[in-house]
Design brief:
It is a single chain. This protein has about 300 residues and is an alpha+beta fold. It has three domains: about 5-90, no CATH class; about 100-175, no CATH class; about 180-305, no CATH class. It has helices spanning about 25-40, 65-70, 75-90, 100-105, 150-155, 160-175, 210-215, 250-265, 300-305, and strands spanning about 5, 45, 50-55, 60, 105-115, 125-130, 135-140, 145, 180-185, 195-200, 225-230, 235-240, 275-280, 280-285, 285-290, 295. It has a six-stranded antiparallel sheet, with helices on one face. Mean pLDDT is about 85; it is low at about 1-10.
């Protein structure tokens, strides 16, 4: 398979920042606005390339906020940043004061990159799908989503299993209640099409846990050969069923990877830039990133199903 190289967005008038999804000039203004917003909130912060740290040692990442600003007109950045910082500076409620009956319907399973969890032992039982893609437990409040430590569930005097079951159950109920928008994307060259499913739910990408049901909702069905899947950010799933029409499947895989790279880089709530081959409930990562080098790597079995090898 050919290699890809991630390039600069053509519309950007200057060099990219290197840490945030902004140009260098935009990032300089963005960081100044962030520092000002925190000062207005009464807290002094130390600015780093990708995060700030307040005087109590609490760290706040900047990537998602920068991606959010990148989607807005620069004249609106002060308002967007001020609202974001105000929300962070007000203590958010935890789960300590909730009864089990109150907490149970608020729990959700969610697909996340393990690196987005505060530390490696935050949720040690998080189910590993493949590589750094894991299923974590979160709690859905009306105005925010939090990810408690695993011990905050087990310290309630019971096993973790019922909470994991509740998370799956509630995520499935969310899927059933969510209107999904479906688009078949055909690249400009007319080959290598793939499907995209979107919704306003922040759990859209996590619906891939119930992949067969998502496919059925948009009239697709797995044919025993698996599905190529990308979950670049929280509001989107992109996929292509590995069907028997193999002529354009290699191109579809390439286009999916390019699509996932762009979505992960540009949208708030990024999860993973990679493409996975999902078959019989097993997830295999088929793409790799090494600096600016983006590579597709398929094993013999997938190569045969894609029409790249005899068999």
């Amino acid at each position: 398979m050919p290699l890809f190289r991630r390039g600069r967005r053509q519309e950007e008038p200057s060099e990219p920042d290197g840490t945030l999804p902004l140009t260098a000039a935009q990032a300089q203004r963005f960081r100044a606005l962030v520092r000002t917003a925190w000062a207005e909130a009464g807290r002094e912060v130390t600015m780093y390339a990708g995060h700030v740290v307040d005087d109590e040692g609490t760290q706040f990442g900047l990537w998602n906020l920068a991606a959010l600003c990148n989607a807005e007109a620069e004249r609106d950045w002060p308002t967007v940043i001020r609202q974001h910082v105000r929300a962070l500076s007000v203590p958010t409620p935890g789960i300590d004061n909730l009864t089990d009956d109150e907490l149970r319907p608020m729990v959700r399973s969610r697909l996340v990159d393990r690196g987005s969890l505060p530390d490696t032992v935050w949720q040690p039982s998080a189910r590993e799908f493949v590589g750094d893609l894991v299923e974590s437990l979160c709690v859905d409040f009306p105005d925010h989503v939090m990810t408690p430590r695993e011990s905050e569930f087990t310290d309630r005097g019971g096993a973790l299993g019922p909470w994991l079951d509740a998370g799956r159950h509630n995520l499935h109920a969310e899927l059933a209640a969510t209107a999904l928008e479906h688009e078949e994307v055909t690249p400009p060259d007319g080959t290598g099409w793939f499907d995209v499913v979107m919704s306003e739910s922040v759990y859209t990408a996590s619906f891939a846990i119930f992949l067969a049901e998502v496919l059925g909702r948009v009239g697709r069905h797995e044919q025993g050969r698996g599905v190529l899947v990308a979950v670049p950010f929280r509001h989107q799933i992109a996929f292509r069923v590995v069907d028997h029409e193999t002529a354009d499947l290699p191109l579809a895989l390439q286009h999916l990877f390019q699509f996932a790279l762009a979505g992960y880089a540009d949208a708030p709530g990024g999860i993973t830039p990679h493409v996975f081959w999902v078959r019989d409930g097993s997830w295999r990562q088929v793409t790799r990133l090494d600096g600016d080098q983006a590579t597709i790597q398929v094993d013999e079995e997938l190569a045969r199903l894609l029409g790249l090898a005899d068999g």
